[in-house]
Write a structure and sequence with these properties.
This protein has about 290 residues and is α/β, with parallel strands linked by helices. The chain contains ten helices and twelve strands. It is about 40% helix and about 15% strand. The strands form three sheets. Strands 10-9-8-7-6-3-12-11 form an eight-stranded parallel beta sheet. Strands 1-2 form a two-stranded antiparallel ribbon. The structure holds 9-methylguanine.
């Protein structure tokens, strides 16, 4: 498996777990909507302030999203998504030397983001929309291919699998073959099981427990567990009070091979991953007595 991944003009070293900070420039994302998008536009000052805070706390990637994938979210027009994302990517690229990821399934957004500084395309629909695969190939950027069963509005109605982990491994393997078939070098591809996207809480926990199966597919694994509703099946907490639980889940994922963790609470995630890495290193250096 690769230890570095080229993300446009920048490179990401994956020899230790990395953190992707979440920057939603939407009015209605499930846990942080409206903080960076006010009065009908991206609040660039607030965006840059949050980005600076995340980078200071240890984020390696900033993930910009202009469309909420929360069930019931308002449908956003292509023009609106494009305007939100391009505004945010341009501002981030001008101010910070970091990998900028764009959370989108829309080919025109992928194309324009690539022109203004994005390094990674993060598609929760796994590049399955018409033209998405070819656009991703043409971009030359790093790609994150995620699994989702169904579409955001209906995905939680009755998610069904024969074996949740094997089914997702098969889906991701097929997507890797599809990406390879259009000439995409798999050295620039990250895979993601898509926690919470068409999965019951039980299925999410099984997926996490057996995540090693996906880590063994040969591609870096990214996980998004931060503030997800699988936490509320155990703890009755609103999204903004799920930090400790999110960090605990992130550690479990990293222990099972995840290389990138998508997080809202970057500082807490960084501290926990630093402790994990230090203890891991000590274990590898220790002599059996
Ligand atoms: C945009 N987004 C929301 N949740 C996500 C997750 O779990 N993974 C990825 N790659 N993107 C996500």
């Amino acid at each position: 498996m690769v230890n570095t991944i080229t993300c446009g003009a920048r490179t990401l070293d994956l020899s230790r777990p990395r953190i992707m900070g979440v920057l939603n420039v939407t009015p209605d994302s499930f846990s942080d909507g409206g903080q960076l998008y006010r009065n009908g536009r991206v609040d660039t000052d607030a965006l840059l302030k949050r980005a600076e805070q995340m980078l200071g706390e240890g984020a390696d990637i900033l993930d910009v999203g202009g469309e909420s994938t929360r069930p019931g979210a308002t449908v956003v027009s292509e023009a609106e998504e494009l305007d939100r994302v391009v505004t945010a990517v341009e501002a981030l690229d001008q101010h910070y030397d970091t990998v900028i990821s764009v959370d989108t399934s829309t080919p025109s957004v992928m194309r324009e983001s690539a022109k203004c500084g994005a390094g990674l395309l993060n598609d929760v629909r796994g590049f399955q929309r018409p033209q998405a695969l070819q656009t991703a190939a043409d971009s030359g950027l790093a790609l994150c291919v995620m699994h989702m069963q169904g579409e955001p509005d209906t995905m939680q109605t009755a998610p069904t699998y024969n074996d949740v982990v094997q089914d997702i491994a098969e889906f991701l393997s097929q997507r890797l073959a599809d990406l390879g078939a259009v000439g995409i070098d798999l050295d620039r591809v990250i895979i993601d099981p898509g926690f919470g996207f068409g999965k019951t809480a039980k299925q999410n926990y099984e997926l996490l427990a057996r995540l090693e199966i996906l880590s063994n597919l040969g591609q870096p694994v990214l996980v998004g567990l931060s503030r997800k509703s699988m936490i509320s099946s155990v703890l009755d907490r609103p999204p903004e009070q799920r930090m400790v639980a999110s960090v605990a889940l992130a550690l479990m994922a990293v222990e099972r091979g995840a290389r990138i963790v998508r997080a809202h609470d970057v500082g807490a995630t960084f501290d926990a991953l630093s402790m994990w890495q230090t203890a891991r290193h000590a274990l590898s250096q220790s002599q059996p007595s």
